[in-house]
């Protein structure tokens, strides 16, 4: 697999190359760049299969670079120490990232994932979702890419009613759409959605509070949502939820 690295720090580039040679010897690094302009030229000249992309650079950032590309036919792995908002946007777009300082195990895991997904050529769709999320006036992701057995779907976060854990999978209940079963755990999505009015009301349930209709304590505590579904409320979560409701 042919790869390029776009990173403005020379020592970081050298360190990354050493890690790549040691832990991912089947990845051939065919180009390097230190800024957005050089990165675009390197992509055009080398036609990589995979790009390792830093976020902050002297003449812009990694998102600027992606927006300037007419087409993206390669895998993208972000390599950054950037703040949480950018990482939430990246995760919600189903793109991968490695945090600095780089853990070799995380590098290997990200590379193996990129190799397995390369043949599907879905990066353009994911990058567009990322750009939409980064451009959001709310400074929070507005869209989520969900991968099920049929492919990839882009879902508006505001349309997600609730999520239910199903073993190592998560079932999405979406307003106006069929339910989706996604091969990621509920915790992964809680990390993305917890700042957007979603509440973990039970070990197996995460709800969008905008769809909460009422709290019902008959026959055990449960919540009724606007789609008429009933979701259990864990005893240890009751006080937190009531505080949120009373604060409205």
Topology:
Elements: E1 2-6, H1 10-23, E2 28-33, H2 36-46, E3 50-53, E4 56-57, E5 60-61, H3 62-68, E6 75-80, H4 84-92, E7 96-99, H5 104-117, H6 123-135, E8 143-148, E9 151-156, E10 160-166, E11 169-174, E12 180-182, H7 186-193, E13 198-202, E14 205-208, E15 212-216, E16 222-225, E17 230-232, H8 235-247
Structure description:
- The protein is an alpha/beta fold and 248 residues long.
- It folds into two domains: 2-135, Response regulator (Rossmann fold), CATH 3.40.50; 159-247, OB fold (Dihydrolipoamide Acetyltransferase, E2P) (Beta Barrel), CATH 2.40.50.1020.
- The chain is 36% helix and 31% strand.
- The protein contains eight helices and 17 strands.
- It has helices at residues 10-23, 36-46, 62-68, 84-92, 104-117, 123-135, 186-193, 235-247, and strands spanning 2-6, 28-33, 50-53, 56-57, 60-61, 75-80, 96-99, 143-148, 151-156, 160-166, 169-174, 180-182, 198-202, 205-208, 212-216, 222-225, 230-232.
- The strands form five sheets. A five-stranded parallel β-sheet has the order 2-1-3-6-7, sandwiched between helices.
- Helix 2 (36-46) packs across helix 3 and helix 4 runs antiparallel to helix 6 (123-135).
- The mean pLDDT is 89.
């Amino acid at each position: 697999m042919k790869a390029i690295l776009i990173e403005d720090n020379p020592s970081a580039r050298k360190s990354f190359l050493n890690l790549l040679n040691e832990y991912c010897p089947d990845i051939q690094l065919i180009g390097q760049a230190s800024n957005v302009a050089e990165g675009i030229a390197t992509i055009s000249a080398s036609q990589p299969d995979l790009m390792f992309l830093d976020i902050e650079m002297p003449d812009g950032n990694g998102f600027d670079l992606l927006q300037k590309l007419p087409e993206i036919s390669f895998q993208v792995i972000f390599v950054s120490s950037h703040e949480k908002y950018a990482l939430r946007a990246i995760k919600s777009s189903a793109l991968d990232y490695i945090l600095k300082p780089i853990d070799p195990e995380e590098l290997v895991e990200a590379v193996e994932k990129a190799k397995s997904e390369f043949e599907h050529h879905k990066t353009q769709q994911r990058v567009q979702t990322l750009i939409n999320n980064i451009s959001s006036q709310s400074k929070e992701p507005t869209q989520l890419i969900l991968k099920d057995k049929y492919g990839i779907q882009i879902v508006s976060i505001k349309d997600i009613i609730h999520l239910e854990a199903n073993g190592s999978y998560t079932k999405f209940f979406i307003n106006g759409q069929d339910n989706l079963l996604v091969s990621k755990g509920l915790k992964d999505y809680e990390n993305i959605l917890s700042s957007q009015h979603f509440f973990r009301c039970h070990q197996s349930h995460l709800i969008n509070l905008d769809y909460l209709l009422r709290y019902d304590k008959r026959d055990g505590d449960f919540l009724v949502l606007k789609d008429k579904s009933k979701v259990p409320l864990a005893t240890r979560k009751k006080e937190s939820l009531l505080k949120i409701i009373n604060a409205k």
